[in-house]
Design brief:
six-stranded mixed beta sheet; about 250 residues; alpha/beta; single chain; Rossmann fold; four-stranded antiparallel beta sheet
């Protein structure tokens, strides 16, 4: 599904990614771990086409197409989703209207307001969200946990081919963490009928892995991936730190 080869990315003239190589297959959950400043979030932003992150070399193929030739909107429409560490607040735009708009832009058959509300209610029930949440303004006055729930709801509505979750577990209590894991597991569990989907989780911690079963774990340090393995690698990192997995 995703093949990154020798990707180099700079920010304000400083090279952050120094030759990243990574492959993500269909129906797989990958976890990317590493210390602060190692380039994990830079990779996520570069994949989505944030203009501050300048690609200086390498290639990214997504579903057989050159991702780097597409702008951010085209990347989203092709099935890529990125959750943010700090989602923006948009007063005056209700959650229902926002989600229906992006649903209709990413699906061949647009839904009426009534038909969409039925789908939205099903997704919200899965996340344990109350119905009155629909009428709130997008992230306006939300707690950290509510913002994460909102992003998981958006992910479930969009049903992306590749979901990139950038530090989605940061600052969450155990209940909110379980909601995130439930959303990921639910989406992946029904991926076969949608042609397959995968998840790339970027995190510092292993606690989310108590609720999500990863297929692969990768270590990023100083702009490159220095190690890959099974879920046991995450526990090794927790015990030994990143030093044994240096370049």
């Amino acid at each position: 599904m995703l093949k990154i080869k020798d990707l180099k990315v700079s920010v304000n003239g400083k090279e952050i990614l120094k030759g990243v190589n990574l492959e993500v297959g269909s129906d797989k959950i990958h976890v990317l771990m590493g210390p602060n400043g190692s380039g994990k979030s830079t990779l996520a932003q570069a994949l989505m086409g944030h203009p501050v992150y300048q690609v200086k070399g390498g290639s990214v193929i997504f579903n057989g197409e050159d991702l780097l030739e597409k702008d951010t909107t085209q990347r989203a429409l092709s099935g890529m989703f990125l959750s943010f560490q700090y989602p923006s607040e948009v007063e005056g735009v209700t959650i229902t209207n926002y989600l229906r708009m992006i649903y209709n832009k990413t699906h061949k058959e647009p839904l009426s307001p009534a038909a969409f509300r039925k789908i939205l209610k099903e997704k919200m029930e899965l996340l344990g969200m109350k119905e009155d949440f629909m009428n709130r303004y997008l992230n306006n006055g939300f707690s950290g946990g509510e913002k994460k729930r909102m992003e998981m709801l958006q992910m479930l509505v969009l049903e992306p081919r590749l979901a990139i979750l950038d530090e989605v577990d940061s600052g969450l209590d155990i209940d909110a963490l379980k909601v995130v894991a439930q959303a990921v597991n639910s989406l992946k569990g029904g991926s076969e009928k949608r042609g397959g989907m995968s998840v790339l989780i970027i995190t510092h911690y292993t606690r989310i892995l108590k609720h999500i079963e990863p297929d692969f774990v990768h270590v990023m340090q100083d702009g490159v991936i220095t190690g890959s393995g099974s879920k046991e690698l995450a526990h090794e990192l927790e015990e030994k730190g990143y030093a044994p997995f240096g370049e």
